[in-house]
Amino acid sequence: MIEIRFHGRGGQGAVTAAQILAKAAFYDGKFSQAFPFFGVERRGAPVMAFTRIDDKKIRLRSQIYEPDYVVVQDPTLLDTIDVTSGLKKGGKIVINTNKDIKLEGYDTYTIDATDVALEVLGLPIVNTVILGAFTGVTGEVTIDSLKKAIMDTFPKKLGEKNAKAAEVAYNMIKEE
Amino acid sequence: MVTVGTIIYEPGNSTNKTGSWRVFKPIMDKDKCVMCENCFIFCPEGCIKEKDGKFEIDYDYCKGCLICVNECPVKAISSIREEK
Amino acid sequence: MSKVKIITGTSAAAEAARLCDVDVISAYPITPQTTCVEKLAEFVANGELDAEFIKVESEHSAISACIGASATGARTFTATSSQGLALMHEVLFIASGMRLPIVMMNANRALSAPINIWNDQQDSISQRDTGWIQIYAADNQETLDSIIQAFKIAENEKVLLPVMVNLDGFILTHTVEPVELPDEEEVRDFVGIYEPKHAYLDPDRPITQGPVGVPSCYMESKYNVQNAMNNAEKVIMDVNEEFAKKFGRKYGNGLIETYNIENAETVLVAMGSVCGTIKEVIDDLKQEGKEYGLLRIRTYRPLPINHIREALKNAKNIAILDKDITFGMNKGAVYTDLAGFLKDKKTTNYIVGLGGRDIRQDDIKEIMKHAEKAEDGETKWMGLKEQ
Fold it and tell me: Which among B2, B7, B13 has the least Cβ separation from residue C198?
């Protein structure tokens, strides 16, 4: 079973990202589950969301403490939150930042998702962009399934734009 | 036997003719009555009924509370001691 | 055609009500049930469901409106949680006493104070004696399937009782996972049309519903509810079988579900989503050569005592998990209900997950170990912090 933790801020769509990833895994023929950290939701507050992916039906209902991957949607979170908490040694972490960051003991990948989002979507909403990067880094889902999941989640035009944004990020991180 | 949900299926099922509870009996003088409907409205038992353009008291259920006597503006209803 | 969607537990509940073609919905939104009501309102607004959606100012009114609707002969659905369910309390008795087959989704959530929106089962357990059938779902698929089954159980002439389908707040209500939505026609064929013989409105057949029940008939009316609960046991099992034949999914025998119980000396008894986590732990420990079992209570009312006793006949240590507490006994309600029937066993009680405290796999392992060594009748609050 693969466990992924998303860090974001309220309103940035971390929960939606976790759900889209669960859908994409399902389209790949796997079982999946996604849930928010059951906190008190406020716009701007640090939030977490989780996705589980497995080849068999997922029965586990506890929260995720030792993720295989971590996704950080907002670089400002690095100052206040231990985003690597419980992350398995050598685990991959994908961070949205325009700086070159390396986190000791982990396989760190950075992408300026905000820049991509502004360019492709015209809005600084990074969740689909960073999902594209995550897919490129981990290969846990296919880019086609990710795009399908994104198209399913948003209205047609918005879905197409977001799928495009994910693909741009996917190719960017693949080329690095 | 108690029905499912204690539902009562016969309308007007009260077999308890409360007229027997009366100590005083209202008497309607149909000639004095001006059909103002006060007694009809105030009767708590719904015992005042209209028949052939005049009001009538249903003594099967009238308990003799005499509210109708009190409410009648033209004193068309009087009361007597029930005779049994 | 059935199709699989990745949806939350609340969406699954709303889809189930739509598939069953309910006539009347009256509900008041409360976290974490809100999205179920929103979804149903959307179905009605965009014409996907031909139903009356009655907006009300409180849960007390919601369930009262449902009673009025159901008494006219309409198929009726509502949904609530926690304080909302508590506010419905007095009216719940009226629904069962009038024998109205209302179906309710309840998102299990803790009761205040302190204010807490997270999961435990204190809310529905506190409605234990209201005469409602209570089903506890373990995942989102079971939530959908149980609501479909609930209408068939509730409307059965031998039952005619309201049914509450419980799912764990957030743990299921806010978690997306694959859920198979069965074909609409097949569901409607399965549940049929609600045509009550007892309670409906017809100007040509005037009846009185909800009359005074004087001492000479009140006891009989309550005895009738108990009889209906007795009948419900078999009906729930039959519906579970029939559902399995038509849709290919079944949940134990409908009343209880057992897992690895044959080989185990120590068996955990639990309800709801935590049973998934327990199964994981059982499988993990099996690989280490250790055998533990699970008995999942699916219907808490009627409580299938005979089935539970039979299933536990080979077990020595029975660890009963409660997501609730009956103050003044230091026990959970499931324990107090069962212990008297399991006198020949060692029973221990675990108060778990109150107010959303996460139940980890390690907690389950600790319960298993504790149950083996503990004295009969011990209670342990899991994960309690030193104060």
Answer: B7
